[in-house]
Request: fold
Amino acid sequence: MRFRIVCAHALAGAALMLGIGTAAADDVAPRVDHHMHVKSALITDWLLDMQKAIPTVFEGLSSDIFKVHTGEDAVKQLDRAGIRQGVLLSAGYMFGIPAVPLAPEEMARRMRAENRYNVDAALASGGRLAAFVGINPFLGNALDELEYWSRRPGASGVKLHLGNSGFDLGNSDQVEALAAFFAAAGKARMPLVVHLRGGAPFTSANVAVFIDKVLPQAGDLPVQIAHGGSYGGIDAATLEALRLYGDAIGRKAPGTANLVLDISAVAQLDISKVPSISQEGIKGRTADEWRAAYVAQMRTIGLDRFVLASDWPALTPPAEYFAAERKLLPVTEAEWKTLCENVAPYLQADWAQRRETAIARP
Reply:
């Protein structure tokens, strides 16, 4: 069912029940978990209401998504895993989901409140957490929400879940609107984390449209593509999208100077075990062979373009997640250490200074 793909932060479930415990104390831990979520009671109640209305909408995800999580909870999970810093990606965009509409004023109020919850958590964390606010870029409040948070300390960027927002790369009007939002984010100096793939066709031509028409509008803005360029797991379309990103990076295409991909749920989701995802694109290879093919492309592109991320609490806690990741991802010890040390550009000192300058502008 496509709606599950559109709504979920990532699809997981049985594929993550691996029986792999917390990493040993001497294992190398990531410096940053680049994809985490905390949720207020407001959006937790909204998710429960959505589940009642559409019982299958969150099938396959951890039941932890229906619990309120605080910034303190996120820091505790980081401490369990030996991780220094986490990136909170607000799910405020979910109040703008086209399939379950709210009145525009109520949608905007809830989105602002959920974004505030995430920003306040980051501000209270003593630097352990960074917060990205969640916006549906196709709604009437999108640019106002971007402008508001671009002037507020504690907001490090914007999370766009384009599947959840009903985006279709084949819709030229939506492509134009998204390009305008990218341009506005670049002007506001608000980095982007983008979940691109959803229920709409995910063809080579459509991904090329994103790379050629939307991404250039970001300029040198840091952009992080979630779930390794897909929605979790690996299929033929995932590998083709990754190839296209690699080609763009290789030719230094506009918008790729600070482009990275997080690999949350890439290695740990076996698409063959998720009935709602088409099986057509995974024929002819085992899950291990798909992972090997993905890592081969990572090496071609350069491991410096990939950052580690858990998608907690949609999957498993970071400690268990990264222990499993290390076992499933077919990389060498040296490559794993490299991945663990990678930090997205928006968390590095020079970009942090640019954000401070943008906030201070009159």
About this structure: The chain is about 40% helix and 10% strand. The longest strand covers residues 155-161.
